[in-house]
């Protein structure tokens, strides 16, 4: 009864090395990612037992995707296969004032065929302690929404913790579902909200600013509307440019507000998946630490992810903890 | 009035280097290809004025695809853009008894949105002398079939030469069209048939063998049913294994049969696109040579393509001619 | 009760790409291998449940080795860690008349610390159906010999099938054990002998030739001395040069002799691990096929391994079966 | 009548990846560049119709160079071929206090054979609206100077805009021409001066400082001496070290002075060609914008070039405009 | 009589490119290094005649190591060979708050077999002017200590200068020697101490702080205890994070104290070997410059090393001198 | 008095990996080569003391070239520097019937500045035992011819052995010298002729065929005209195609004729420099073996060179000897 469950699309990420564009070089690298998968692998790297549920292509690319998850000891036993191709995204990594740029090929991917009857939730959640979902899955296809909803119903019934990262990405909602209604419905099953004033404004039709005062008030109103929500964890990113960010976190747990100092990320290696690293840090922290330390752990996890290439946070618990404890000067480990 | 026109999907081809599998390395290379495109670029490399018509994605991948065609001086002025992603195929290159393996991601690609009204055929064929089509385009989508048909009608009206490579690949026909009927309809516009007994058997419901006698008889029956067809060019591949093939060609032009000797390809670099290289050699030959030399040029072009990585035949006319003239020992050029 | 168990050292293999030497390029690739591991992963790729038992370094290299095994769904739950470094081997791949060359760094590796008390054999063999061992493990260190012996005793007690590949590599025996005595002792626990006249001559102090007659007689004498041995499987390699081999197999199961045709491997990609691929094919075959088909499956598995870079046979059961069924011309799979 | 014309040498640029030296790795990358070419390609990337005139080698390297220009849709119809090799430059990229270092192999390159009779200026400038030249071309060889001069005479006669980047690089002037006289002669044909007080001091034998006051006074004196010059655009680079620069621009158009804010380039990817990117931005701006916006566009173009590997500015008009509009935090584009 | 002698282990360094981890990519690069070797090569790059004495493996890896030294014109005539493998270290390069991480495989390396009788010191020091040793060599093995001691005795007898870098790395001392005693014994032969308060505190059992006052006092006490020591050179590293350091140097020569300004290394390429680059700068400086310039040269050498990948400082004397003279803005060299 | 002396141009060789063309990939590799250099390095690899004399560029490319020679322990003490760039050649490697193709950039290289006064022959030949020259050096420039001639005069005076490889490559002779006269003059200093009927026909204006009878007769006439020539060594290449050659050797030493069997090189890695490997084998053999074994050693050296990438033969004496002894099946070396 200690398994963390994630459910969502597995994407193949393809990009040239360094800051090159596709037009510059026909040598590219691939990794796998996907917001829920990134969270699952990161939590597994922290030492947890994790199962990722998805639908991948029935070809050598799907085999490779599954093998990628296994590398990180994530259970793939509930992954189903489809004759459609795996979703792909192409990435050109920017620098300084040049933004990174992503182009998706996912609208008819293997995951888009997911249907509730393809996932045996009873079996999949048998050892489940925690369930994490994001706003990407219901956005992708009706089957994604319906399958997720079934999973959440059962998870709630079993008393599992449920974390929601209800990111709203308007470009994805093409199947006809009304984002606000659906996200609102799904937040209703959740116990922890990983998001900030943008996401709350979206759900509550409010207009809160980024100030701490507004964050606290927004969190209070959120908890009022969604009484299952017990805690809100938010991270704040200050972008100097594509290559230099600062990260801090804040939280409201219904009783107390707290925030961390900025972590200064002077030389970003890869910022994709850093939000997922924050979520993973929060989920892992909630199983072991108090709320304040959880927030700090999430913030440190988010920060260190910026130093790894690919969507995945490769840091283990000890490495994140070391940053949390103030070891940020990068002293060589022999 | 000397432009060669090709029309068809542009695919991004992604594969690991050498004989690696995707599970072995996250370093991959990409090229662009697609059967009609391969023909177009090869004919351009032989020195012809070529225009390729297609629909590619409206993102940096589509930009890169267009730039790839431009590299070879192929006109891209009639290429349209779509919000869907470019088609992709993943390739694992085999060796010896291990086959190469391909997985496609093309069923909802940018090209699948092609519609007759997106191509201004009058303008596109203004300088047209020759039109080449294959059985892949009508297989992909209804719009592909209808757009191609409009092009063929106009090309015929303008008296252009039309070469047909009516390859029937059953796995592609998913939109409801009946392959035999449609291919038959399109062959009716064509003046040169690039294919062999397999393709003829498919069209005529016959059962001819690979013997030269059967090839001649099959060609005769083909020309009877499709009286616009003047010539049939066929290549015969003998596979020792994935790494070692032999290639020869034969032809029937209504009056005479002729065949070439085998060209022995002892160390294949890449066999994808070698059939397209044959077609390109035939089309180019028909503009300049007699039928026999055309057949020989096609055969030599097909053979040398096996020595280039990627879908494209990089050989120019002089290089193919040199092989045709018997220079097959690969003497170092300084 | 259907798990295949392998036990042995995990080595990191480092080599330049293609046929380069270390002095030519500072770009190298690494894979993991080791004779028993290669067998385990290959059998897992055929679809079996496999557990590999070993001792790897307690650093990021050991982490990477474990993650390599997980990629192939091999259970790593019984792998222990040591503060010594993982064994390494450096490889320069030859061509034509130039031999490949290997240099080992394994004599004080993490595996050299293995001790019987580090492996919980009861737990490790709980689901065990088959145990595979080779002559490399007892050669490496006394602890390797003793630990292996404990495992064999238990495996025999549980009635598991036991395959022996008693390769004798004289350069490895540095810890003081007497090779012939120890190998002989361990063969006594085994039910299937994977080896040929060289290995039998070593054990019986005989001098059999490579002829089929001698192979049969040698096998008979072997079974007489080691009555637990029920079957002998041998592969025969004919080397034209470093780049071109032929492979066939033969067997004696106490009643019948049979041999396969040569498989002609005209363009070798990597010959390391091909003997292990043969052993894996035999082990897998013995679970599902009759002895003759098992021999053929082993032979085909060995042959196709020559087309994969690295120590591992990436072929699945269907791919090997296809070769066994005569599909050796490498027809492109779409 | 809207074509931008550039004329100058095409160089092959060869360098190790990252900050490596040639002594460290035998893996290198090549791109093509050359100051006028860089301007031409950049303006083409902004959407203009561009023709580049040059003389390249008559081998596969020259073919590759031409194909590189075609990739960016730059017309190569007026490029001539020579039996001499293409010019090459080798680059080692520095970091922090280590300077980048360039070694040229261009003194007997294909371009050094350029002669006035090799360029049909009438035909080449038929659609010409703008001509851009730099001080590199007349420095390289007498034929370069004479050919350029013929082009400028015709461009002036046709009333084309002419931009001069009269960079004086003393190491290049080996053919006997007197730099100041020749540059002065050529500036006399020009309508826009892209350069600063260094270049003006060189031409006027003055000693102006970098202050804005001096820049204005220098510009005034320049316009007095060369009355065809209507506008002066200058960029100012502040180098913290090899990896960190700041860029701003200023202008005097005969009536008004204006300057931009510094753009802070905290993590330089490649600084080669950033001056050319500025010139391209100015030329493009002059066709569409007022002088102030032109200056800002040039400054933003120069800044973003620092984020692309190679000599070329890959940014399109929209991407530069976005920076000009203040979007410098590099927000991820999906 | 002008040869600089270094003695110590040659290690093969293996690491993924950029900031990748071994688990992310099987493409890795190797270089050779080792603290004394790094000093030797750097001094050779400054123009000195250098001989490195070591024991390397008798295989193609050892051949490659020797060839690496020869590249830099370091004499390898006194290098002996062993049947043990060359020592290896694996490196994962961190960024920002993520530390770099090293795992060694050296405890039973070829160097660990070094014995006094394997080095002919008389012959090796024949042309010797300077001897450099570090605290790593006596830590590795008893033979390392004894061999070094013999060399120092002879060097002292011959009146050679002797620089000591008595780094104490506790993890290495496994052979039973008592670090403080042995280091103390060896410092007794030395004339220049390259180290700071940490090293002095270790030797004197003191507790000096990093302040300049303490540094001076510590140096005085050091010289009192070890009267052969004439000068102490120290460098001070301020780490903002893994990617951003500041370096300055200070010295006490028995009469005067002096320190340099900080050199700001805003974008570190590789910090391994930067301490060795400092030592090499000091040793080289002492042959040519006064003490103050020597200190400045060491500091500049240390700083520029941060911009080279690998353990080696590739800068020549002129390049270091240029930084010393204040050229730190990295102006492009053509 | 045992040094082998080579004198000639050092070229940088640049080519894409595998069989790619420059138009396909901007990733290329470089090596250094040059016919005399190739001979020198190969002889050094066989264990001899070798000095190479040349003139290389005074930049980081020249530094890298020198460091390349040092890697192989070839003395570079007599190499001079020039302000011209190092010669370069670009290579596209063919396969099967596609020839490899080379484009040179050497006509104004650093070596083209060589003048007799730049080489101190007295000092350079001080330890000289053998001098090797080829027909490339006098072809390149007058200074090359004159400098070589001075060297040959002194070498003859000192009684050194002199091997001539008087390859006549017509494309190179651009400086006005008359090839036949000059080559004839230089052969007059030589004691061993490494070449076949082609080279003899060129010198004698004869028309001998490839038959052994003609080879013997040609050799006799050669020795008659050039009485210093004592032995003629020839290798015969049979090209099946670019990827598959056969090599054998033959000799006439004034008394006896002998020839080797064909060595079958079924999978060529790189054929550049294989003639130089033959020459190196002959030169090395002449110092140690009888004429027949020398011929066999040359043939085996030539054959194994086909398995190494780059111009250089990396094989040592033992490796060549093993082939000579019939070990051509490439048995794995552990």
TrEMBL record, chains A, B, C, D, E, F:
Residues 1-313 form the Carbohydrate kinase PfkB domain. It holds the Pfam family PfkB. GO terms for molecular function: kinase activity. SUPFAM superfamilies: Ribokinase-like (SSF53613). The keyword Membrane does not apply. Gene3D superfamilies: 3.40.1190.20. Coiled coil: none annotated. InterPro entries: Carb_kinase_PfkB-like (IPR052700), PfkB_dom (IPR011611), Ribokinase-like (IPR029056). Keywords: Kinase, Transferase. The keyword Kinase applies. Belongs to the carbohydrate kinase PfkB family. This is 2-dehydro-3-deoxygluconokinase. The lineage of its organism: Bacteria, Pseudomonadati, Bacteroidota, Flavobacteriia, Flavobacteriales.
